[in-house]
Amino acid sequence: MSLNLHLLRLFAAVAKTGSFSRAAELLHISQPAISKGVRDFELQVGCRLLDRTPKGVRPTREGAALARHAETLFAAERAAEDELQALRNLDSGSLRIGASTTIATYMIPAYLGIFHRAFPGIDLHVVSANTSEIAALMLAHEIEIALVEGPVEDENLVSQAWRTDVMGLIAAPDHRLAAASGPIDFHLLEDEILIVREPGSGTREVVAQALAAHGVEPKRTLEIGSTEAIKQAVAAGVGVAIVSTATSDDQVRLGKLRVIPIKGTRIERMLWQLKSSGRLDVPAAVAFEGIIREKQDAQANPRKPVARVRRTDPAPRRQRARS
């Protein structure tokens, strides 16, 4: 049996929106046409795909399975359309980038500037969210580039090591820990209010791992869902925090924060790029990947000349991260 792709599209729109009327608005056709198309499709596949309820419609078990395949199919269709458009010398098209909050705020802007100067005709769209949310967007084919603060264990995603990020303990300049003449003992944090990010944040996971590895259990924690807000709270003397040094360098230079070294401890984490297994990379994504890797290579090897951005940069090899 060959599926009617037009009818599949109608069904997928209803399954996604949960409403025949909203699906009709989305596809710019009449509601009766949507209803008839879904009925015809159910007859074609030989089973009921949607349950009609007073609160709307929802997929049956068979409908949910088919909707997942439809999402992948139409995502591939969009990717093909984007690639055909982007292949015109990368003079037009778009690139959707998703990044964990810290990366989007402090690391991505420099890469965006380089990319825009090389390919001014490409529209850039950046989504900032925590690691788990970015992974979900990549799985849903809502973004082409995904840069996150921790590897994601999902059979449909491949985590590739991207760059190393150094974490540091920050405190207000007048905090008691800032008066220490040398590196402090990690266990001193047990008597401090430790300010942490929200669950699902890669930063929070790294901090939790570092504390556990040293047997440190702070008596009090404060959860704040923004690194910028955490820095402000630390500067105001509310508590201390462990954050990426890339996020605190500016405030340290201004004298509003102090980085406190910890005795015998260096907290680092690997930042990761997520790839959708089996998904074809559009040329704009390949070009952007070339930029972030060349810049990282230049930072790691200052004497090595940076190659110019070329429109034919090959896609990086996919390697599944070791768990």
TrEMBL record:
Gene3D superfamilies: 3.40.190.290, Winged helix-like DNA-binding domain superfamily/Winged helix DNA-binding domain. Pfam families: HTH_1, LysR_substrate. Keywords: DNA-binding, Transcription, Transcription regulation. It comes from Bradyrhizobium jicamae. This is LysR family transcriptional regulator. Residues 3-60 form the HTH lysR-type domain. The keyword Electron transport does not apply. The lineage of its organism: Bacteria, Pseudomonadati, Pseudomonadota, Alphaproteobacteria, Hyphomicrobiales. NodD regulates the expression of the nodABCFE genes which encode other nodulation proteins. NodD is also a negative regulator of its own expression. Binds flavonoids as inducers.
